[in-house]
Design a protein that fits this description.
The structure holds two protein chains of two kinds. By secondary structure, chain A is an all-alpha fold. Chain A has one domain: MetI-like (MetI-like fold, Orthogonal Bundle), CATH 1.10.3720.10. Helices cover 68% and strands 0% of the residues of chain A. Chain A contains twelve helices and no strands. By secondary structure, chain B is α/β, with parallel strands linked by helices. Chain B has a single domain, classed as 3-Layer(aba) Sandwich (Rossmann fold). Chain B has ten helices and twelve strands. In chain B, the strands form two sheets. An eight-stranded mixed beta sheet of chain B has the order 6-7-8-3-9-10-12-11, sandwiched between helices. A four-stranded antiparallel beta sheet of chain B has the order 2-1-4-5. In chain B, helix 5 packs parallel to helix 6. The longest helix of chain B has 18 residues. The relative contact order of chain B is 0.14. The chains are: A mainly alpha, B alpha/beta. Bound molecules: adenosine-5'-triphosphate and magnesium ion. The site of magnesium ion (MG) has 3 residues of chain B, from helix 1.
C-alpha cells in the first residue's frame, strides 16, 4: 500500500500560511495605502500625550480662531490654528484620533460579539432558532439607526461610554447576517459531522471548527463596522447628541466649527479630512484583507 | 450467520439494527404544510464482528440517513440500534464515538482547512481526554504510518494533500480511537480510479490489523463485490435483499437486485446504478407507492404487490422481501 506522494514533495513548495498572506498583502496597493494611513492615525492616538504640543482642553480666549500656518495670519505656535475657545487645534485633532478609534473599535467589538453569537447560533442550529433570530435581524434592519441612537442618547444623556454602548447595541446586523450565512456553509462540511461523530462538545465545535473558518469574514465585517461606527459617532456629535464637549471628537469639532464656516472654513475641513482619511483607510484595509485571504486567491 | 465472521463473540452481533425507522418532516409546498418523509423504514440488520456489509441502493433511498442513525448523529424515530447487545440510546455520546466512526465520501470537505493534519488526527484524542502531549504525538505519527503517509505530513495543511492522501488522513482520524466499527459512506467515489483501489486495499488491510467491522455504502457494485462479505440492498428506505456477496452476484433474487446487476453489464459500467433499465423513475419518497414500493417498476409485479408490502423473510440463502420468492417457496 504505497502512498500516492507522486505529486512532488508538498512540504518543499510550502511557505507558511502567514508568510504567504504577508507577501500577498505587500503586493496589494489598496491594502498598503490603507494600512499606512491607518497606522499613522493609530500612532497619533497611541502617542497623543507625546505628540500633542499643548493641552487639548486649555482655553485661551485671547488667541481665538487663529488660522493655520499656511494662512498669512497663522504662526508656528499653533500649526493648525486655534478654535473658537482658543484651544490648540492640532492638539485637539491628535487627541480626537483617540476618541474616533475608541468609539469605532469599542462599538464594533460589542456589536461583533452580539452579531457573531446570533449568526453562529442561527446558522448552526437552523430550524426554529434560525427563524427567531432571522426575525430579530429583520426587525433590526427595519430600524433607522440614527433616529434610535438620537432618541436613546437624548433620553439617557450623552457620554463616551453611552455612545459606544448605543452604537454597539445597534450595529450587529451585518455581523449576524454574514456569520449566519458563513456558519451555514461551514456546517454543511463533513468535518463538522466528523467532529460530532467524535463526541466533540458544542463549545469545542464552535471554537475549534467553526470560528477559525469564520475569522476572515469576521475581520472584514469588523473593519466595515469600525468605519461605520466612526461615521455615526461623527454624525451624532455633529447633531449635538454624540460625545459631549469638551472632548475633542472630530465630529464634534466639525459641529463646533459650523458657525464659522464662512470665515474660518479650516475649522471644518481639517477634522473633516481626518474623518475621511480614517474611514477610507479602514475600508481599504478591510477590502485588502478580504482580497488577500479570500478562497479565490488561494492556490 | 455469516461464514466470514472473523471472531466468535458468542453469537452477539457487533452491530444490530432492530426495526429502525427515521422520519423527516419536509415542507411539501408553500401552503401544503409539513409532510412526513420516511427516509429509513423498518430496517433490521445484524452485522457480525469482522464482517463487511455492502449497502447499495439508488440515490435518495436512505443509505446516508441510516449511517447517521448508526453513528448516533440522528436519533431513530422508532426502533433501536445495539452494539454488542447494548442499546445505543442508553450510552453516552462519547462512548458511542469510541466504538463507531465514520469515513466520508468527499475528502475535501471532511478535513478542516484551518488545521494541520496532525491536529486533525489528534482531535479525537483531545476530545476523549488523552492529556499527554508526547504520547499524542507518538500515536499520531504511528497512525500516519499505519495509513501509509509519511509522518512529516503532520505539520502539513489539508490544502497541500491530494484527494487520496486526504482520505488516508480521514481514515487515520477515524481509527485513532481504535473503534470496532467503521461506517464508510461512499469512501472512494470522489477519488481517481487509480487511487480508489489503493484506498480499498488499505481498508481491507486495516480490517485485518484492527479487527474492524465495516458498513460500506457504495453506488459502485464492482467495489462492493471486491470488498463486501455480505450485500444489503435498500429500496426507498427498506431493505429488500440481504445475501452473501458471492451468492448475490451470481444469482440476485429480488427483481430490484437483478435490475441493479443488469445495469453493470451495460456498455458503460462506470455509470453504475443511475443507468438501471427500470422503466419508471425513482418514486417520490414523500408519496411512496402502496404495497411493495418497487411494484410500479417491477417486471414481475402481481396484483398482490400493489396492496401488501412484503416482509423481509429469512431463508437459507439470505433475506428477501418479495412476494414472488415467498410464493415460489410456498410461503
Ligand atoms: N435532513 C433532512 N431533512 C429532510 N429530508 C432529508 C434529510 N436528509 C435526508 N433527507 C431525505 O431522505 C431521503 C434519503 O436521503 P439519504 O441522503 O439518506 O439518501 P442516500 O441513499 O444517502 O442518497 P445518495 O446515494 O444520493 O447519497 C432523501 O429523500 C432525502 O431527501
Ligand atoms: Mg448518501
Amino acid at each position: 500500500m504505497a502512498a500516492e506522494t507522486g505529486s512532488g514533495d508538498p512540504l518543499a513548495r510550502e511557505l507558511s500560511r502567514g508568510r504567504v498572506l504577508w507577501l500577498r498583502g505587500l503586493g496589494h496597493q489598496g491594502f498598503l495605502m490603507g494600512a499606512v494611513v491607518l497606522g499613522v492615525i493609530v500612532m497619533m492616538a497611541v502617542f497623543a500625550p507625546l505628540l500633542a504640543p499643548m493641552d487639548p482642553f486649555e482655553q485661551n480666549l485671547s488667541a481665538r480662531l487663529i488660522p493655520p500656518v499656511w494662512d498669512d495670519r497663522g504662526s508656528w505656535a499653533h500649526p493648525l490654528g486655534t478654535d473658537h475657545l482658543g484651544r490648540d487645534y492640532l492638539s485637539r485633532l491628535i487627541y480626537g484620533a483617540q476618541i474616533s478609534l475608541l468609539i469605532g473599535i469599542g462599538a464594533a467589538f460589542i456589536s461583533g460579539i452580539i452579531g457573531t453569537l446570533m449568526g453562529v447560533a442561527a446558522g448552526y442550529f437552523g430550524g426554529r432558532v434560525d427563524m427567531v433570530i432571522s426575525f430579530i435581524i429583520t426587525a433590526r434592519l427595519a430600524t433607522p439607526v440614527i433616529l434610535v441612537a438620537l432618541a436613546i442618547v437624548a433620553m439617557i444623556g450623552a457620554s463616551l461610554e453611552i455612545v459606544i454602548a448605543v452604537l454597539g447595541l445597534l450595529l450587529w446586523d451585518r455581523y449576524a447576517l454574514v456569520m449566519r450565512a458563513t456558519t451555514q456553509q461551514i456546517c454543511a462540511n463533513d468535518y463538522i459531522t466528523a467532529a460530532k461523530a467524535q463526541g466533540c462538545s458544542l463549545a469545542r465545535i464552535v471554537v475549534s471548527e467553526i470560528l477559525p473558518n469564520l475569522a476572515n469574514n469576521l475581520i472584514v465585517v469588523a473593519t466595515l463596522e469600525v468605519a461605520n461606527a466612526i461615521i455615526l459617532e461623527a454624525a451624532l456629535s455633529f447633531l449635538g447628541l454624540g460625545v459631549p464637549p469638551p472632548l475633542p471628537s472630530w465630529g464634534l469639532m466639525v459641529s463646533e466649527g459650523k458657525s464659522y464656516i464662512l470665515f474660518d472654513p479650516w475649522l471644518i475641513t481639517i477634522p473633516g479630512v481626518m474623518l475621511f482619511l480614517l474611514v477610507l483607510a479602514i475600508n481599504l484595509v478591510g477590502d485588502g484583507i478580504r482580497d488577500v485571504t479570500s478562497p479565490e486567491g488561494r492556490n | 450467520m455469516s461464514a466470514s465472521a472473523l471472531s466468535d463473540t458468542g453469537g452477539i452481533p457487533a452491530l444490530e439494527l432492530r426495526r429502525v425507522t427515521r422520519d423527516f418532516h419536509v415542507s411539501a409546498g408553500l401552503f401544503a404544510g409539513k409532510r412526513r418523509l420516511r427516509a429509513v423504514n423498518d430496517v433490521s440488520l445484524s452485522i457480525e464482528t469482522g464482517e463487511v456489509v455492502g449497502l447499495v441502493g439508488e440515490s435518495g433511498c436512505g443509505k446516508s440517513t441510516l449511517s447517521k442513525v448508526l453513528l448516533g448523529l440522528l436519533p431513530a424515530s422508532a426502533g433501536e440500534v445495539l452494539f454488542h447487545g447494548e442499546q445505543m440510546s442508553h450510552q453516552k455520546r462519547r462512548a458511542v464515538a469510541k466504538r463507531i466512526q465514520p469515513i466520508f465520501q468527499d475528502p475535501y470537505s471532511s478535513l478542516n482547512p484551518r488545521r494541520s493534519i496532525g491536529s486533525i488526527i489528534a482531535q479525537p484524542l483531545h476530545v476523549h481526554g488523552f492529556g499527554n502531549r508526547t504520547e499524542i504525538r507518538r500515536r499520531v505519527s504511528d497512525m500516519l504510518d499505519v495509513v501509509g503517509l509519511p509522518s512529516r505530513l503532520a505539520q502539513a495543511s489539508p490544502a497541500q494533500l491530494s484527494g487520496g492522501q486526504r482520505q488516508r488522513v480521514a481514515i487515520a482520524r477515524a481509527l485513532i480511537l481504535r473503534p470496532e466499527i467503521l461506517i464508510c459512506d461512499e469512501p472512494t467515489s470522489a477519488l481517481d480510479v487509480s487511487v480508489q483501489s489503493q484506498i480499498l486495499n488499505l481498508l481491507l488491510d486495516l480490517r485485518r490489523e484492527f479487527q474492524l467491522t465495516y458498513l460500506f455504502i457504495s453506488h459502485n457494485l464492482a467495489v462492493v463485490e471486491h470488498i463486501a462479505t455480505r450485500v444489503a440492498v435498500m429500496y426507498l428506505g427498506r431493505l429488500v435483499e440481504v445475501a452473501e456477496t458471492r451468492a448475490f452476484f451470481q444469482a440476485p433474487r429480488h427483481p430490484y437486485s437483478q435490475a441493479l446487476l443488469d445495469s453493470i453489464i451495460t456498455p458503460n459500467p462506470a455509470e453504475g446504478i443511475p443507468t438501471v433499465h427500470l422503466g419508471g423513475s425513482f418514486p417520490n419518497p414523500i408519496d411512496p407507492p402502496s404495497g411493495c414500493a418497487f411494484h410500479p417498476r417491477c417486471p414481475h409485479a402481481m396484483p398482490r404487490c400493489a396492496t401488501d408490502a412484503p416482509r423481509l423473510l429469512t431463508d437459507e440463502a439470505g433475506e428477501i422481501a418479495c412476494h414472488l420468492t415467498n410464493m415460489q417457496q410456498g410461503a
